[in-house]
């Protein structure tokens, strides 16, 4: 690019690029060059970007990010093809996404977003490095693409579910405002025990206080779950609403009391495993699984039965909603204590 006709300064590095390359795809640079030509008469201003002494200065970017943007704009088809494979340098594509979003390279931003999303959706031959996940998460939040953010959320949920890099997950999701993931990370860290998170160097004093707050709040809430079944609207054809509601409350209490149903469930359905009373997420998911199994195979779970409820379908749907909302709002238990 030595024959470039525009000089751009990024940090302390000079780049010479071609005006027609960097101004295409509806980019901000096109507007910049247009303004230079149409709106300003000052010769000194018009010369900005034409020499090393008066380059166009970009603020807030680093050299690697701008170099990766130029790679994308100048890349050959084979290079682009490689960037869409499992062997891709995904950090490079993430840098491209950030820069194209900032400078409004419309179709190139769409390409980068799609490339990263598909890359993360595929079964990679190796684990995604956590530094790459953090970087992609930062860019995904910045750009706000719903599909990419959902894939990112799945990656973090998997990491948190495996109790991997919990402190990093907690601090990253908190910094990026991913509140649903933040709550899951806090709960997972809480379940590790105070002896673990008190020694975790990545956690701040405020985060440790929130963990203590969460311990108290979850302890209180977990004892109330069995007495507060999910609410639902009874069907128009429900023969006896009060009786149906009583049966639902009784069944809910039973399946929330381990001693009441462990013999009939744990032995018949080995897939189910007991969870800590503090593990609200897995506990709620377990309740959904048990009630779904009771609904599908009532004889297997006698004397407990969901199917006999006139509003069994509504009760099951309410439990699914309960579990989903609990997972999305776990952060409510880890409130600030000032």
Task: Describe this entry's structure for a reader.
With 338 residues, this protein is mainly α. Helix content is 59%, strand content 4%. A three-stranded mixed β-sheet has the order 2-1-3. Helix 4 (63-74) packs across helix 6 (90-102) and helix 16 packs antiparallel against helix 17. The mean pLDDT is 86.
Characteristic key phrases:
338 residues; mainly alpha; 3-stranded mixed beta sheet; 17 helices; 59% helix; 4% strand; elongated; BTB domain-containing protein; SKP1/BTB/POZ_sf
How is the quaternary structure best described? single chain
The share of residues in extended strands comes to: under 5%
Can you tell me the overall shape?
Answer: elongated
The largest sheet, given as strand count, sense and whether it forms a barrel, is: 3 strands, mixed
Low-confidence stretches: none
Gap between N and C termini, in Å?
Answer: 56 Å
In sequence order, what are the helices and strands, one letter per element? EEHHHEHHHHHHHHHHHHHH
According to DSSP, the number of beta strands is 3
Topology:
Elements: E1 6-10, E2 13-17, H1 19-22, H2 28-38, H3 43-46, E3 56-58, H4 63-74, H5 77-82, H6 90-102, H7 106-121, H8 130-143, H9 146-161, H10 166-176, H11 179-192, H12 194-197, H13 205-222, H14 241-255, H15 258-265, H16 280-296, H17 312-328
Parallel strand pairs: 1-3
Antiparallel strand pairs: 1-2
